[in-house]
Amino acid sequence: MGRRRPKKGAAPGVAAQEEEAEPMDLVALKKPMEEILPEEHEVDPTSADYYFDSYAHFGIHEEMLKDTVRTKTYQNVIYENGFLFKDKVVLDVGAGTGILSLFCAKGGAKHVYAVECSLMANTAKEIIQKNGYSDVITVLKGKVEEIELPVQQVDVIISEWMGYFLLFENMLDTVLYARDKWLVPGGVVLPDRTSLHLTAIEDADYKHEKINFWSSVYGFDMSCIKKQAMLEPLVDTVEPNQIVTQTQLIKTMDISNMTPGDVSFSAPFKLVATRNDFIHALVAYFDVSFTKCHKVVGFSTGPRSRPTHWKQTVLYLEDVITICEGEALTGKMSVAPNARNPRDVDIVVEYTFNGKRSQASRRQHFRMR
Fold it and tell me: pTM for this one?
């Protein structure tokens, strides 16, 4: 497998352990994270500070537009389902360069309101004008929660809101806010369904390279940094031949009907080994579906599917688990927006394993930031 590159300067790894911890509910989920990083809360700039600024740079939009799995799926949904867009008023939440708005306008929308908070809104206006759609697309610069639309209701809300681990950056809450404020009864949200999945992998070489590196750095013991290096999940591409277990569906989200509180959840998992091997990490990925189309359309960000810019999310375990075919790693995953910065995601994994060749029981904390 090729060398991995951590997302946005993040250190790869797993979270620090807590021995013999009691099972936790979602109310208690955020507290341990505050205890792990007590010094940084008052001074550490997080994704909330940089979120909109980061989307002002063309590079991130280039990465997303070159993701043909993502962009072509949206294009096909719009062009091949004219009954959803013809003569309809559309709201594009987080419009970026305006590419989805352009698809909608070309697909027959009566009018499109493209909302973008970053400075990319100015560029989107220029792009829309150059392509002759200024009379159909109105770009509104600002936060969805703070702007006012020139209309009281819209027929369709479209957005590419998904982040790493599906929920990183928490743009889903913005889509739900727009849905509740402007969507006409019987209106359509696209995409309207997502699902989060979990599997387990063997990854000894990379875990050793990145985590154990701190044990001896040019002859000096820097192992105290491991706690920090192991806190954040790693976003990268996992090779299919690394997968050791079956896949478990963790969470399904119905965007048309869910409430903002549904982004916090706790779900059990049971990962059954398909071969004799070692488990070094859990891997999460998500699927996206457009079920309101004439024919259901969607894509997966899983390791066995075509690569996307979302890649997969790797959560390294403190234990190395020796698992035999047919044995199961069981546990629970709890997920919630971080209490201080809701664009970050707190993840807690509780797992238990009792196999022929190894045993383990632990609770680990992760934070995507």
Answer: 0.83
